[in-house]
Amino acid sequence: MLLSEGQMSDHKGAALMLDALPPPRILIGDKGHDSNRFRQALTARGIEPCIPSHRGRKQRIVHDRKLYRQRHRIENMFGRLKDWRRIVMRHDRCAHTFMSAICLAAAILFWINEP
User: Fold this and answer.
1) Contact residues for 64 (Cβ-Cβ < 8 A; gap 6+)
2) N or C: which end of the chain has fewer CB within 10 A?
3) Backbone φ and ψ of 26, nearest 5°
4) Cβ distance 21 to 1 under 8 Å?
5) Which helix (H) or strand (E) element contains residue 78?
6) pTM of the model
């Protein structure tokens, strides 16, 4: 797992993690992951990107809208984590402690199986 600073763009953080991940067939990302360099890195590894084009792109790149709708599961998980005030307000300044709070909240949410 990688915890990046808030100012880092999504596609740069995702590119740092690309080598550590098992090779998926498809990567579903949001508009923050839309960059030519990231798309080329994915296709070089044999991964099909399912990323919508950001608003400023002159030539739109098509993506599978039906597959992209499955991304809501990940968004729901982040929404549940944001119910924890400590995580939302980032009380912990140390990245290690902050990541520990995220892991603890995720474990508790999994354990109680909150809908």
Assistant:
1) 50
2) C
3) -135, 140
4) no
5) helix 72-81
6) 0.69
Among candidates 97, 75, 73, 77, which has minimal Cα distance to 86? 97
Which positions ≥6 away from 102 have C-beta within 8 Å? 81, 87
Could you tell me if 92 and 104 are in contact, meaning their C-beta atoms sit under 8 angstroms apart? no
Tokens of 52: 């919508």
pLDDT per residue as tens digits for the range 23-75? 789 988 888 888 898 899 899 989 999 999 988 888 889 888 999 898 888 88
The CA–CA distances, whole Å, from 33 to 18, 41, 72, 89 equal 12, 12, 16, 24
Which of 81, 85, 83 is CA-nearest to residue 102?
81
